[in-house]
Amino acid sequence: MASVDSARTVAIDITDGVAVVSLDRPHRLNAVVPTLVDDLIARLDEIAAREDVRAVVLAGNGRAFCAGHDLKESTPAGDSRGRIERIQHVTRRLRALPQPVIAAAHGYAIGAGAEFALSCDLVVAAEDAVFAFPEAGLGLSVTGGASRLLPLLVGPVRAKELLLLGERIGAQRAMEMGLVNRVVATDELRGTAVDMARELAGKPSYAVTLVKRAVDAGIDASLEAALELEVTHALLTENTAHVAASAGRFRERGTEGT
Predict the structure, then answer these.
(1) What does each C-alpha distance from 19 to 5, 9, 43, 102, 128 come to in angstroms?
(2) Three-state DSSP class for 126?
(3) Residue 254's pLDDT band (cuts 50, 70, 90)
(4) Catalytic site residue from 46, 73, 85, 135
(5) Which end of the chain is more exposed for a tag (fewer CB within 10 A), N or C?
(6) InterPro entries from the xrefs (predicted)?
(7) What's the whole-model pTM score?
């Protein structure tokens, strides 16, 4: 067993070939800030280089998987394109890992949180999980590859419904639509995800990697174009008056995130 203390916002535990990577801002429902993005990428980079890690679970500590971008935090000034592309690198890194990644989603998986889950190879959801893509209603744009990955999972009509209306859907509905593989009791979520990861870790690693690469090959050829278009749209939307007003309302009343 090997446990490694992480940076402030992401924890990692490695046991018997399985790395459990946990978003760790529970006081903000693991809402995304630049530090979390940097810490998550660093942990994934570490895992990619470790031959003793054969499967990965991505989870969230506290009451939620990830409640999206933290709108109570001011948008950092400076290189907007670089900041957006840094968020997108989480998608790239999850998909590029040689190890299979299982998302263990509970509570809120909203906005960026839902995009993190979609970027994993498999998704296990707790009965209390809630998924949504609220960006359009806030005057924002998706940035984590959802414009490509979501239509592949649910079809273009359903994808537009989820992205345009931004409605929250429960775990069972998410499974019926093809967003998740399994729904389990909330108190069984992490154990189920780890058991699945152990099963994958017991298979020949080269064969598992080849399956992941083969399935993703056709997807990723178009994913890069989608990610670039998302950057363009995000740059167009992030400084509008509507976004400023939405962020102001979140800061005034407090929120769980996007």
Answers:
(1) 12, 16, 10, 10, 24
(2) strand
(3) low
(4) 135
(5) N
(6) ClpP/crotonase-like_dom_sf, Enoyl-CoA_hydra/iso
(7) 0.87
Residue 110 identity (one-letter amino acid): I
Residue of 115, 230, 238, 256 marked active site? 115
Please indicate, yes or no, if residue 195 is contained in any of the structural domains.
no
Residue numbers of the domain that contains 42: 2-189+204-253
Find, among 117, 3, 138, the residue nearest to 57 by Cα: 117
Instruction: Please state, in angstroms and as integers, the Cα–Cα distance from residue 106 to each residue in 66, 200, 240, following that order.
Output: 9, 22, 32
> Is 115 labeled as catalytic in the residue annotation?
yes
Total residue length of the chain: 258
Judge whether 146 lies within some domain: yes
| Residue 196 maps to a domain | no
Return the CATH number at 210: 3.90.226.10
- What are the backbone dihedrals phi and psi of residue 198, each rounded to the nearest 5 degrees, phi first? -65, -40
